[in-house]
Amino acid sequence: MSLTSAPGASNFEEKEFPFTDSDFRFIQDLVAERTGIVLTDIKRTMVYSRIARRIRQCSGVSNFSEYCELLKSGDESELISFTNAITTNLTSFFREPHHFDYLASTVLPELERTKKDKKIRIWSAGCSSGEEPYSIAMTVADHFAHRPDWDIKILATDLDFDMVERASQGIYTEERVTGLRKNHLRQYVKRGKGAQQGMVRMDQRLRDMITFKQLNLLHDWPFKGPFDFMFCRNVVIYFNKDTQKVLFDRYAELLPENAPLFIGHSESLFKVTDRFKSMGQTIYRKVK
Question: Would you identify the CATH topology of the domain 3-86?
Fold first, then answer.
């Protein structure tokens, strides 16, 4: 499919800003270079919407061509804002609940039986606004409620610096937590009062368990593991197969044999790597 025949392409003349094939190709290349994400032609409308928002916010920029020139100038602050605008951050607490059921029923009991040092390390890669690592933390806190002698830490990383900052605060609107179980709301969610009414904050116990860091998965990782299990959900779907192979090989190096890896519902390791065995429902175990 050519760029000019991409869905919605014929409607760009009617948009607020002209958006040429050349603009789109430049953005595709820049996103691939900075994040490894492959923007196909069908993402053109999405790209227009998100970058048009940036154009309106940038002083001295009035169209896509000028915005692309700003990015070409190497303005690091805007490059970060650009990357944040493009990357998708859709998440919720206990999204794909079967993962957390498996974590509670199988993974955590296994670790409690086998980890003699009473130390557990977890990585949430692509943590977005924090709902995933806080869901992991609640599940872990439930299981080890009567075992305070265990040392449990969660590393939560994301490409988007703004999301990492927001997640580290652990503050959400009340509507974001309406789906949580009553015991989780009672134990782990603190409701705001006065000026903070309508907002909630994750309990200090959860926040103490999690370290939030900005990280580009395609760059060097400032840690060596090992991790006892990993969540990397709805992240690699944006990468091409070659990049996926590299990433999953790097993940495998940080996981001991038989350690679980949880990926997104629309993702698969089929013909990507042979270092993990499927347990069903997008749950894998490292085999080599």
Answer: Chemotaxis Receptor Methyltransferase Cher; domain 1 (1.10.155)
**Does 219 have pLDDT greater than 70?**
yes
- Residue of 21, 41, 50, 142 with catalytic role: 50
Adjacent-strand bridge partners of 151: 119
The answer to whether the CB of 134 falls within 8 A of the CB of 202 is yes
281's torsion region: left (phi>0), alpha (psi -120 to 50) or beta? left
**Mean pLDDT (whole number) for 178-205:** 94
What's the distance, CA 147 to chain centroid?
Answer: 30
Contacts of 142 (CB under 8 A, 6+ apart): 104
Question: Is 50 known to be catalytic?
Answer: yes
Residue 15 phi, psi (nearest 5): -75, 170
135's tokens: 């869901």
Band of residue 88 on the pLDDT scale cut at 50, 70, 90: low
Residue from 23, 34, 95, 158 carrying the catalytic annotation = 158
Q: CA-CA distance, 272 to 2, in Å (whole number)? A: 27
The hierarchical CATH code for the domain 97-286 is 3.40.50.150
> Among candidates 138, 136, 153, which has minimal Cα distance to 223?
153
pLDDT greater than 90 at residue 52: yes
| All CATH 3.40.50.150 domain ranges in the chain, comma separated | 97-286
Q: What is the pTM of this model?
A: 0.80
Integer Cα distance of 198 and 195 in angstroms: 9
pLDDT value, residue 9? 43
- Does the annotation mark 158 as catalytic? yes
